[in-house]
Amino acid sequence: MRCFGDGDPLYERYHDTEWGVPVHGEHELFERVCLEAFQSGLAWITILRKRESFRAAFAGFDPERVAAFDRADVERLLADAGIVRNRAKIDATIANARAVLALRDAGRTLSDLVWSHAPAERVREPRAATFAEVPAATPESTALAKELKRAGFRFVGPTTAYATMQACGLVDDHLAGCPVVSPRTPHS
After folding, report:
1. Is 125 a catalytic residue?
2. Residue 11: pLDDT band by 50, 70, 90 thresholds?
């Protein structure tokens, strides 16, 4: 039995092939940070089902294009039923794109910033048996959230930062009984 997603092919595919797999590319990390922010207060499957619409609405999560979004783009996004229409989260996504560009201008990358907060051990041993044993935030996610905020990112508290760390493979929180971590299908 999977950690989550059993019974929904989209969710199963995400669980089996993406969640916990290391991500380093700027566009990919930018997308994940933004989608985790949109997920705040909602079920991840809601965001996953709208992911292609998010990609279309936010120019494939190209930071340069999103950073150039203006008031008309915000109004367009607020009218787009294919995404979560939350002005604060839309504004945060545009601000986050600008923060990615500011990082570049400062000689850093989003990948460098995010991965500098990876814990020494990617997998906690023993693995958790239930999600009740998995933390919602860690000292590393708290530090990542603080650094992202200092860099101009929004909607990136410690819990959202930890969800990003899980989704992007900085940590591997697949549960002990998950088939993804079985000896036949290693995931580390």
Report:
1. no
2. very high
